[in-house]
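Hello,

Our lab assistant flagged a job as stuck in the queue for most of the afternoon. It eventually completed. Since we weren't sure the result was trustworthy after the delay, we are filing this so someone can double-check. Below is the sequence as submitted and the structure that was eventually returned. Let us know if re-running is recommended.
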Amino acid sequence: MDEQGKPRSIRELTEGLRRRGGMLFGHVSRRFDDPEYPHLAGFPVNISFPQLRWPEGLPEHEDDDKPHELFFLCLWPDPETFREDGSTKSLAYFNTWGGPEWVRVIYSKEDARWQVLQYRGRERTRFSQGPDFKGVLWHATFGGIDPGETIDRWTKGDSQDS
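-- returned structure --
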């Protein structure tokens, strides 16, 4: 950890999460490719922030079937927020469970770069950018769920289990 108590590397971050009984993973959504919404082509269909947690601690072996929960924050686009000008296209995504979390995805036509700006209300909480869509989205979602975010939960053993 650095002097502010933040992890210095992804390895340090994931080891800390495992010790606390949870694991984050990045998620890259498929892109819009719908003839009904040609202006949204290239933008992610949704943005989700998944996190696995084991209330009784992490399994010691891969085949250990300990109870676990999947928490996720899922943001869906509002097509009415799509904006395009000579240099950029942007689209906003909102929390499906009504929370204040939202994301603006911006594509720069001039330099073919993506930006993902994450907000809670008016406060910007995270930012990622780069030329590679998958890398930018993975980086944006790898941080996972922040404390206090409005999320949904699936528990192993729920009726949707197969």
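-- support follow-up --
The delay was a queue issue, not a problem with the job. The result is valid. The chain has a mean pLDDT of 76. Residues 10-154 form one domain.
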